Amino acid sequence: MDNLPKCGANYVPLTPLTFLTRASNSYANRTSIIYANVRFNWRETHERCCRLASSLRSLNIVNNDVVSVLAPNVPAMLEMHFAVPMAGAVLNAINTRLDARNVALILKHSEAKIFFIDYEYIDKAKKAIEILMSDFQMPMPLVVVIDDLDSPTGIRLGELEYEQLVFQGNPKYVLENIDDEWDPITLSYTSGTTSEPKGVVYSHRGAFLSTLSLILGWEMGTEPVYLWSLPMFHCNGWTFTWGIAARGGTNVCIRNTTAQEIYSNIVLHKVTHMCAAPIVLNIILEAKPHEQRQITTPVQVLVGGAPPPAPLLEKIERVGFHVVHAYGLTEATGPALVCEWQAKWNKLPWEEQARLKARQGLGILTLADVDVKNFKNMESVPRDGKTTGEICLRGSSIMKGYLKNEKANSEVFKNGWFFTGDMGVIHPDGYLEIKDRCKDVIISGGENISSVEVESAILKHPYVVETSVVAMPHPRWGESPCAFVISRKDSNLKESDIIAHCRRNLPGFMVPKKVEFVEELTKTGTGKVQKNHLRAVAKTFVVSDQTSKREKPRAYDQSHEQILALSRL
């Protein structure tokens, strides 16, 4: 058997770019993209990607150059997931909610050669480029403006425009050979909920295998109609930027994720699938009467980005959305675990079904192994659903590593495992459940308190819309839970109401010692609450053993309001 070598016929490097070629050949006339009044089929999308890749090469883009893009979920963003690597380059999709300085930091760190900018973000991009050149002393990348495809505005920043590059490119362009499937395909920056953002590099192999795993794990059939309610900049849309091509489906692109956009597109285009963070489910549930539409066929929703509370899952299922819960992180090419549903659970009461569905589930097929390990001895925790440890992963869907950050790489890659920084448990049936970020665990008098569990209990209150729980200083116990709560506008909730509710639903040591009502919770671009901001507020609170009270020096009040008013990333 040693005399049976690899050859071009029996060994082809894995890359999701093959999904586009196959879609063009097999599903040429199927609708590939819908955006407002714009329609493309898969033959046209393949040709447009070939043209753009050709134009990128003519602009002196070479293998492994970084091409950055700042854009919402528009057709150009989707096409660039194919066209940029087809040119041999690496796509860097930037979080549109970042401020100009953070955009500049990413352009500097990635050394982007070309910067594609949607017309909507021209002002932010201008400031970022100014910072890049003046503060960081870096050369200006080549700029290309993406105008609106349905309603062109004519806005420009320089001479180059996206559709111009598509028009000028060669439709017969042959993509650069992928000689090594370990070559980089994308560069994504973490959302920075617990630390500074880091550049995460994906390989062609990892992207290909993750895409297949999620299609199978979600049981996505052929010809799905997929609504882009998840930002494509978030882990490359959890790989569905490539995955919809693999299934010959239709991408329904929307510029803004609003209740009206979601409902109207679902009904108009008969949407079958969408992905979302829990915040998007809240947007759907809080839709005004004139924004709502009757959902006649259940929409399959893959939920991740933050642990969804069981009460939220129960509510969203009742209005026509069938939820599958996933867990992942940027470093794992998006979802790494999927809560595979078991038929026997259909007989359980609704509340119990929601509780089971809120668990993070089982490893996707491209993970060789998933485990929860004890911090001190690195041994696997018992499968009792109670003993917590750090969730560890290993497999082909894990990132290549952090760009230019050996220290961070050495911290997360240890003994053949990737350490996620998330705490969880394993239930007797093998399903994992996340309990918290390691940095978000509240240690009170030696007891570990999961902020996620406290949040789930608070969300059971009928007048609570959203909540986030963090640690606050306690003179006796070291730390105690502090809850930030958004209540319904028609309610008159008081701190005592929430505390009394928690006493009925939680052990005494887990009950928040302080409840702060807020109008908004500051979030990252992927819908995760920025708990570091809330912790800064909580540190200004003072509690005694009997009551909780707030310090009120003038400087505190100003700081408190500034922190709570921080704009979303």
Uncertain runs are 546-569
Q: Helical stretch count?
A: 18
Kindly state the number of beta strands: 29
Helix content: 25-40%
What's the main sheet like? 9 strands, mixed
Mean pLDDT score = 89
Structural class: alpha/beta
Task: Determine the N-to-C terminus distance.
Answer: 56 Å
- Give the oligomeric state of the chains in this entry, treating copies of one chain as homo and distinct chains as hetero: single chain
Please list the strands of the largest sheet in the order they lie side by side.
Answer: 2-1-11-10-12-13-14-15-16
> Which range does the strand content fall in?
25-35%
What is the rounded Rg? 24 Å
Instruction: Give the overall silhouette.
Output: globular
Keywords, separated by commas or semicolons:
nine-stranded mixed β-sheet; 29 strands; phenylpropanoid metabolism; five-stranded parallel β-sheet; ligase; single chain; alpha/beta; about 30% helix; disordered C terminus; about 575 residues
Give a concise summary:
It holds the Pfam family AMP-binding_C. This protein has 18 helices and 29 strands. By secondary structure, it is α/β, with parallel strands linked by helices.
